[in-house]
Amino acid sequence: MQAPGSGDATLYLFGPGGASKRAVQHGAISLSADELRVAGRYTAILDGSSTSFFVTAAPLQKISFIAHPSRVPAAANGAVLGAAFLFDRYQNLVLAPTAVDFRLGVEGTAGEERKVTSQDGVAWVQFNSGRRGGPAQFTATSGNVQTRRVVQQVAADPCGIRMKASRASDGNILVETAPIQDCSGNAVPDGTIVTFTSVDAAGRSTVDARIKRGYAKAELPASTSATLSVAAGVVLGNEIRWGGGE
Amino acid sequence: MNRMASNRHLEEFRGKGLRIAALSLAVLLGGAWNPIIMHAAPPAPLQLFDAASAAPRPLEDATALAIQRDYAHAWRSLVSALDENRAGLLDENFTGSAHQQWQNAIHTQQQNGLSRHIIDHGHQVHVRFYSVDGSALEITDTADLEIQYREGSKVLTSERVQAHYLVLLTPAENSWKVRALQELPPG
C-alpha cells in the first residue's frame, strides 16, 4: 500500500479474520501474507483516512466431497449425487469457476464420468448407479487434488424369481428357488426375505424364508391340490399348480 | 413462489404465536378478554429470502423457515460479538472456519483495543445450493451494512457498504450453523 508523506503513523487493519494496529512509516507499507489469510473485505485506516480492498482465495488445495447415498441399488436412475466444495489452504471457498471431474465406477467397469465447472465454490453431479454390485469409487478431481468416497452398489429388487416344487419325504411340499438375482444379474443379498404361499381348499399357508447362498427354500404343508406362489417384496415370481402328480 | 410461500408461512407462524400468547395472557387474567396490542420480536434482518433457485434439492418450507431464523440470529450474534468483543456469542450460530475466523477477529480486536459497530440495514438472501442429503446449503447474501471501526470509544472511520457474501450453512443438532461467510469483491 502507498501512504504519501513522511514520518510515523498508525495503521489500523480490519479484516474478516483479524484486526491489528501498528506503527508504520509513511511511504510504501507492506502487509504480510499472514495478515491476509482470510478472503474478504479489508479496511485499512491511516491518519484518519481509510481504504478498502478485497482478498480472494488462494489456489485450490482441498475438496470437501459429499456423496449421497452411501449404499445404492444397482442400475438406479439418477440415484447417486455428489457435491464438491472447493477450498484453498486457508479454508476460503475458491470462487473462480474451476473444472471438477467426477467419476463413479466399480473396479473393472467403465463407470460414469462427467466434468462440471464449479459455481460459487461448489460443483455437483448426479449419476445413475452402475449395473454391477460392489464398492464403487466415487471421485472428485480438480488438477492435482482428488477426494474419494465409496458408494456401495447393491443388488436392486429381485428380477424374475423362479421356483420349483417337489414332495418332501414327510409328504410336505418342498419349494426352492433358482439363484435370485436383480435384473442386472447381481445376486440379491443373503438374508433377503422370500415369501412362499400355498392356497388350497383348506385355505392359505405362508412361509417366509431368507435367501441363503443365493437361494431360498421352504416346506409348505402337504396338499393334494394347491396353487404355489413366490414373492420377494413387491416382486412376484412364478406360480405352480400342485397336484395330479406335479 | 417459494419466497411468497415462505413469507406466508412466516406470517402464519407469527400470527399463530401472537394468538397463543394473547390467549395465554387472557387465561392468566381469569378469562377476561381484553383487546391486547402485542408486538412480535423485532423482525429478522432478512428483507428477502428467495429459495426458488435452490438445487439440486428444493427447499422445504419448514427448512426455509429454520434457515431464515438461524441465519438472522447468526448475524445478530456476529454484530454483537464484534461490537462487544465477546467471541462466545458466536458459539451458537457459527462453526468450522467461519467460527475460527471471526473468533480470531474478535480476539485480535480485543488485544488491540479495537471494535466494530455494525448497523445492519438488512439482507437479501438467495439460496443457490441445497444438497440432496440436506447436509449443506449455500446462499448468497447482499447485506446493507453501516460499519464503524473503533478504537475504544473513538470512531476511526465508518463506511456504508453493500456487501455480497457467499455463505455455507450446515445443520447442527437443532439449528443451522454458518460454516463459511465469505465476502465477495463487488461485481
The main β sheet of chain B shows up as: 6 strands, mixed
Largest sheet of chain A: 5 strands, mixed
Mean pLDDT of chain A: 92
Work out the strand percent of chain A. Answer: over 45%
Report the β-strand fraction of chain B as a percent range.
Answer: 35-45%
In terms of quaternary structure, the protein is heterodimer
How many distinct domains of chain B?
A: 2
How is the topology of this model organized?
The complex is a heterodimer of chains A (246) and B (187).
Chain A: E1 2-15, E2 18-28, E3 40-46, E4 49-55, E5 62-68, E6 71-73, E7 80-87, E8 99-106, E9 112-117, E10 122-127, E11 134-142, E12 145-154, E13 163-167, E14 173-177, E15 193-200, E16 203-210, E17 217-220, E18 225-232, E19 235-243
Parallel strand pairs in A: 6-12
Antiparallel strand pairs in A: 1-2, 1-3, 3-4, 5-7, 7-10, 8-9, 8-11, 11-12, 13-14, 14-17, 15-16, 15-18, 18-19
Chain B: H1 2-28, E1 46-50, E2 55-56, H2 61-84, H3 96-111, E3 114-130, E4 137-151, E5 154-171, E6 176-184
Parallel strand pairs in B: 1-3, 2-3
Antiparallel strand pairs in B: 3-4, 4-5, 5-6
Helix pairs in contact in B: 1-2
Tell me what you see in this structure.
The complex is a heterodimer of chains A (246) and B (187). With 246 residues, chain A is mostly beta strands. Chain A has three domains: 2-55; 62-154, Sandwich (Immunoglobulin-like); 163-243, Immunoglobulins (Immunoglobulin-like), CATH 2.60.40.10. Helices cover 0% and strands 58% of the residues of chain A. Chain A has no helices and 19 strands. Chain A has strands at residues 2-15, 18-28, 40-46, 49-55, 62-68, 71-73, 80-87, 99-106, 112-117, 122-127, 134-142, 145-154, 163-167, 173-177, 193-200, 203-210, 217-220, 225-232, 235-243. In chain A, the strands form five sheets. In chain A, strands 6-12-11-8-9 form a five-stranded mixed sheet, with no helix packed on it. A four-stranded antiparallel sheet of chain A has the order 2-1-3-4, with no helix packed on it. Chain A is rod-shaped, with a radius of gyration of 33 Å. Chain B folds into two domains: 1-41; 44-184, Roll (Nuclear Transport Factor 2, Chain: A), CATH 3.10.450.50. In chain B, 36% of the residues lie in helices and 35% in strands. Chain B contains three helices and six strands. Chain B has helices spanning 2-28, 61-84, 96-111; strands spanning 46-50, 55-56, 114-130, 137-151, 154-171, 176-184. In chain B, strands 1, 2, 3, 4, 5 and 6 form a six-stranded mixed sheet that branches. In chain B, helix 1 packs across helix 2. Classes of the chains: A mainly beta (246), B alpha/beta (187). The A-B interface holds A 12, 14-21, 38-41, 43, 45, 48-50, 52, 54, 56, 66, 68-69, 81, 83, 85, 91-93, 95, 119-122, 124, 126 and B 56, 96-97, 100-102, 104-105, 108-109, 112-114, 116, 128-129, 131-133, 135-136, 138, 140, 147, 149, 151, 156-157, 159, 161, 163, 166, 168, 180-185.
